Amino acid sequence: MSRYQNHPVVPSHTLFSNRGPAIIAIVFALALLLTACGKTYPNCDDDELCAAKGEVCVNNTCRQCRDDSQCAALDACMGCEANICVRRAGCCKSDLDCPDGKCWKETEARLTGVCGGSCKSNDHCPAGQRCAGGSCVPSTTCEEDTSCPGGHKCVRGICVTSACQLQDLRFDFNQHTVRGNQRSVLEENARCIVENSMAVELVGHSDETGSDEYNLALGQRRAAVVASQYRALGVPGSKIVRVLSYGEEAPACVQMDETCHDENRRVETLPR
What we know:
Layout lengths: L11 H26 L9 H5 L4 E3 L2 E3 L4 H5 L5 E4 L2 E4 L3 E2 L9 E3 L8 E4 L12 E4 L2 E4 L13 E4 L2 E4 L7 E2 L12 H13 L4 E6 L6 H21 L7 E8 L10 H7 L1 E6 L1
Parallel strand pairs: 13-14
Antiparallel strand pairs: 1-2, 3-4, 5-7, 6-7, 8-9, 10-11, 12-15, 13-15
Helix pairs in contact: 4-5
């Protein structure tokens, strides 16, 4: 007789069923343990879990900010947008934040202000200068060259250096890109503006071909392109006081021929 005959084999399913209650107890205990441990980052119920990473709990998720107060603690010029801290456009704490101008604050006690030009009124400019387009420019006005100091001439009522020549920029028919042969004119105008710290306005024009509305828009596009080119050549944006269009309403020439039309397709750079 085999020594195993007195020990019948127990089916495996019987073993599992006998251990079932124990397995259930273990699973239940693990569930309790996980519940006791609470949520893990980035899930949260309150700010306590998020604080370790300098964040706050928003809708059960750790986020960088709930409102502006969390961002202001990092930088006075930062605000909360979509639960992320971002720098507010134009905000400044000092003139160092405004490379092309000054930081203007409502009161000295305020921590932040808004970047602007170097002046807001003539009172902000030194003697002999005036505020034009946010910049201090020579206040000398004139009616003719003899009214200006030596080495200067009278251009549209303002004394500028004699070497300064603000010329019109010409465009091809139905185009708003500056002609290749106008590059030297563009560069000379930019140099003139920078050397004289001059504030200017740009006025776009067109010939009479097309509707009034189309020509007005075309003149505006031409003036905007010239403004962009000036800035690329070093003219501060604050020196470009205004960019506008007269369309076909202010022609330089009134003859009905192509030569005249060519003169009318232009952008004027006018001192302010």
